[in-house]
Amino acid sequence: NTVMAAQMTNAHRRFLQVLMSNGITEGSEARKLHQHCCETDKVYYAHDKLDDFISTINSHLQPLFMQIRKGISEDDGRAHYAVVNLAETEVTKMASDYTEMELELFRKTMDLIILSENGFASSTDILNLADQLKTKKMKKKEAEQVLKVFVEDKWLSEKNGEYTLHTRCIIEMEQYILSNYQDVARKCNICHSLAIQSQVCESCGIGMHLPCVRKYFRGQTEPRCPKCNEFWSCDTP
């Protein structure tokens, strides 16, 4: 490990450390951080070379089964970066931070979100699961507190009492979700990232993130599916 790290410049190491401590970093922040690390370390900086800079770090992280991954916010389509542990694709990667009871609530919440039509689960539905846990029944007040922690730790996002998976969770758990929810989990036809909140073509069943739908149909007089060319019946955002 030390040998691999020694081959990276201080700029690469500093960038990686900040990303790891952040949990997830928005694209514009990552670009600022890239510039700051290069200038501090007095190494060559080019504003359009962030992906190359990250590829260098990833080549050193490969033997450690880790990787910096880029993901798209389902909310606004912005890029985000997170460090992913490839050796632990299960929800067990959260095991060191949460109790078995909390993890069970998270899994059940994940079920509700992924199996829903719009990629959201209401707080009422989630809290109703709290007293059905196999590990130990959880009081609603306690469950509310746990949900708050999941939001603070960027595993869930909440808007007006509705919960969905945070971008960090989607980046880190993409493989877990695709293999455990094979019948319902789909990738976006445009950006090829996992799509939880998406619109689906009624004819051929492909899905697209809402920001991708917005971008793809911009300027088109009649929205048609990029795969089967049938009329796109969903209301485009």
TrEMBL record:
Catalytic activity as recorded in UniProt: S-ubiquitinyl-[E2 ubiquitin-conjugating enzyme]-L-cysteine + [acceptor protein]-L-lysine = [E2 ubiquitin-conjugating enzyme]-L-cysteine + N(6)-ubiquitinyl-[acceptor protein]-L-lysine
Enzyme superclass (EC): transferase
EC number: 2.3.2.27
UniProt xrefs under InterPro entries: Nse1 (IPR011513), Nse1_RING_C4HC3-type (IPR014857), WH-like_DNA-bd_sf (IPR036388), Znf_RING (IPR001841), Znf_RING/FYVE/PHD (IPR013083)
One term under GO cellular component: Smc5-Smc6 complex
Coiled-coil ranges from the UniProt annotation: none
PANTHER family: NON-SMC ELEMENT 1-RELATED, NON-STRUCTURAL MAINTENANCE OF CHROMOSOMES ELEMENT 1 HOMOLOG
Role this protein plays: RING-type zinc finger-containing E3 ubiquitin ligase that assembles with melanoma antigen protein (MAGE) to catalyze the direct transfer of ubiquitin from E2 ubiquitin-conjugating enzyme to a specific substrate. Involved in maintenance of genome integrity, DNA damage response and DNA repair.
Protein family per UniProt: Belongs to the NSE1 family.
Subunit structure, as described in the record: Component of the Smc5-Smc6 complex.
Record protein name field: Non-structural maintenance of chromosomes element 1 homolog
